[in-house]
Every structure is written in C-alpha cells, then in structure tokens.
From TrEMBL:
<dbReference type="InterPro" id="IPR040198">
    <property type="entry name" value="Fido_containing"/>
</dbReference>
<dbReference type="Pfam" id="PF02661">
    <property type="entry name" value="Fic"/>
</dbReference>
<protein>
    <submittedName>
        <fullName>Fic family protein</fullName>
    </submittedName>
</protein>
<dbReference type="InterPro" id="IPR036597">
    <property type="entry name" value="Fido-like_dom_sf"/>
</dbReference>
<feature type="domain" description="Fido">
    <location>
        <begin position="119"/>
        <end position="289"/>
    </location>
</feature>
<dbReference type="InterPro" id="IPR003812">
    <property type="entry name" value="Fido"/>
</dbReference>
C-alpha cells in the first residue's frame, strides 16, 4: 500500500512520531476481500424481522467484551441487567461502567452517520467524558496514578515526577508514551487529520479503523480509559462506512484473543522502531481476521433468529388451528426460549410443568410429549436434552 501517505510529527519532548500505513497490499488483499464479501452477504440477510433482537444482543455482548478487557467485573448476564436499569436504579460502579460504555456507543452511532463524518478531537473528548461519567476510578492497566489524575474529557499532561508507562513483559514489554500534554494534543490532532487524509485518498475503513486504533493507543492520550475510547472510535470509523453490527461486536474477538491483542501493539511499535517492512501488517491482519469471524458469526445468528421467527409463526398457527393444545404450546415455548437447552428430566420436575398436569394422568403427559416429538416441534438428543424442532435442519 502507498506509503507516500506517511506523516512525520516533530514533538517537543517525544522526538519524531510517525504515522504510516506500513502494510503489504499483497499480503492483506485476499483477507480484505473475504471481509468485504462477508459483509455483503450479511447486508443481504433479511435483517428487518430480527433487527431489534440482534441490536440488543450485540449491545450487551459488546459492552461486556470491551468492559471486561479493562477490568470490568460484570458477567454478560449482569451486563444485560445493568443496561436495562433506569439511571436512578444503577447501584454501583460496575453497573455504571457498563451503562457508560453503552452511552459512548450510542454517541458514536449518532454522530458517525452524519454526512462526511470523520472523528474529531471533540468526539474523542466527548467519548472519554461518557466513558467516565460519574466514575471515580477504574481498573485499566497501569492505573496507579490514574485515579486522582484522570479527569473525564481532559487529555493527559504528566507533571514532574509522574511517568506513564503502558504494557508489561507478558505482552511484549513496557512502553513509555508521550508525557507532555502539548505533545499529546499535537499527536492526537495529527492522527485525526491523517485519518481524514487517508479517507480522502480512498483508503478503506477496514484499513483506517485498525490503524487509528493502533496509533491512538500508542499516544495513550488519557490517564485511563484509552482502550475503551479507542475501540469506540474504531467502531465509529467502520459504522460511518455502513458496518452496522460487527464494529461493536469486534470487542468480543479482542476479549477472546486478549493476549494477542495486547502483544500486537508492542509488536507493531517495535517493528516500526527497527524500520522493518510493513510494521503494522500483523495488527491489521489480526483485526481483519476478527472482523471476518465476527461478521460470519452475526450472519449465522441472523439465520438462526429468522428460523426462530418462522418457527414461532408456524407454532402459533398450529395452536390457533387446534393442532396442539395449550399445554403443548406452553412446553414448546419454554423449550424455544430456554437458550442453553433443557434436560427432559428437568422439564418433568419443573413446577410450572407439574402445575400443567396437576389434575391429569401420566398417560396424558406422555401423549402430549409424544405428539410434540412426532410433529417435530421438539427434538430430544441422545443425552436427553430438548431443543426446538428446527435445530435439526439448522
């Protein structure tokens, strides 16, 4: 790729900072095309009937992913519960962290769809404000001095005697980012301008987004929250180009490959310092592999949700036409919405199930279940677990 787009920035105390594509077009071409093709397949999916459910799932899993990377303690279920709370119901810092990330995602979705949008310094500061709204501390790496220094929406400016270092030996070493506030502001503004220049030159968002993320983290412009802000900005660049769900769900890929994710920042930095060819290739390749996996997962999830919609409609028609009774309809709905599967012996012991048959015989119980299996509305695997009938064909 054209490295004529390299930008060199002279700082006051941090020497020369260089932004470069640093990529091999030949090495990335096939993977890049596979991501583009996957996105086109996903766009052609019948999203409308399941958009609300998919949106809800992606928001919860994305908030969980990016929050957990930076020390968040909520499970995915607890994250979902936190995001359902009204502002007055939020009870603790962990819930507030999750809500704040959701608010930052909401902000970037709103601004990034504006015509000709590119991330601005105002966006960066606003996202940090949203991430840290009402929080007194966080658990990101290297936060020894962060608690008292970190101010929402204010760039880092290290006073004498306080040195910021990021990283660790496990992930490729410790790095000292720029310390002087003037240098940090210059570098951040230059990165924003460089990203816009790449967009003007036709560099695709699938390249610009990870490069912006990479250099943003190397600048490390805030005392705390850089990871969360960087991932939101990465998502915004992609969202502005029509990627609607994967940019946010990408956080789960980073979480599941957390050691590789952290190590690649150092690997790219060290490769650039040693003036190696294509120093950013590994990070961008990692990002593209994540996008491909994420988009394909979302595509499969949409297909499954569509199966559920069609199954529910068919089930309702069958019930309305008296093809199954109220008890059978209730059983199938429980199996359908149980999520992780239900053991047949657990079903038979469930209070609601026992209540259905409190005045009926065991023969009636057996007949009801047999008919559901005969109609293939439910299936029972070799381990005695129940699943909706459509899973056989999925």
């Amino acid at each position: 790729m054209d490295d004529n787009l390299t930008k060199r920035i002279e700082t006051i105390r941090s020497g020369v900072f260089k932004y470069q594509l640093g990529l091999s077009k030949e090495a990335l071409a096939l993977l890049l095309q596979r991501v583009v093709d996957a996105q086109e397949r996903f766009r052609s999916s019948p999203l409308a009937p399941v958009a609300n459910e998919l949106e809800k799932e992606v928001v919860v899993s994305s908030v969980f992913g990016t929050n957990t990377i930076e020390g968040g303690e909520l499970s995915e279920q607890e994250t979902e519960e936190a995001l359902s709370l009204s502002p007055k119901q939020v009870q603790n810092i962990q819930q507030k962290r999750a809500v704040n990330i959701r608010n930052a995602y909401d902000y970037i979705r709103e601004v990034s769809v504006q015509k000709n949008w590119q991330p601005s310094l105002e966006d960066v500061l606003q996202i940090h404000k949203l991430v840290y709204d009402g929080l007194e501390s966080s658990n990101e790496q290297n936060h020894e001095q962060c608690d008292e220094q970190n101010v929402p929406g204010v760039l880092r400016d290290n006073p004498d005697g306080i040195v910021t270092r990021v990283g660790n030996a496990e992930h490729g070493g410790v790095y000292k980012p720029p310390q002087l506030g003037t240098d940090i502001k210059l570098l951040l503004e230059s990165l924003i301008a460089w990203q816009a220049e790449l967009a003007d030159k036709g560099i695709p968002a699938l390249i610009r987004a990870p490069l912006f993320h990479l250099y943003f983290e190397l600048i490390h412009p805030f005392w705390d929250g850089n990871g969360r802000v960087g991932r939101v900005l990465e998502a915004g660049i992609l969202y502005s180009e029509g990627f609607r769900y994967a940019p946010f769900a990408q956080a789960n890929y980073y979480l599941s490959h957390i050691h590789q994710y952290f190590a690649l920042f150092n690997r790219s930095r060290k490769a650039a310092d040693k003036k190696k060819d294509f120093p950013n290739n590994a990070f961008v390749e990692f990002f593209l592999e994540g996008m491909l996996e994420t988009i394909n997962h979302l595509h499969n999830r949409v297909n499954r949700l569509i199966h559920i919609v069609l199954y529910e409609a068919s089930l309702k028609r069958l019930h309305d036409d008296k093809g199954i009774n109220d008890r059978q309809y209730a059983i199938v709905n429980v199996v359908l919405h149980n999520g992780s599967g239900m053991a047949l012996n657990h079903l038979k012991k469930a209070p609601w199930y026992l209540a259905l048959y409190s005045k009926l015989t065991d023969k009636t119980k057996s007949r009801d279940l047999s008919k559901l299996k005969e109609l293939k509305l439910i299936v029972v695997d070799e381990n005695g677990h129940l699943a909706p009938g459509f899973v056989e064909d999925f």
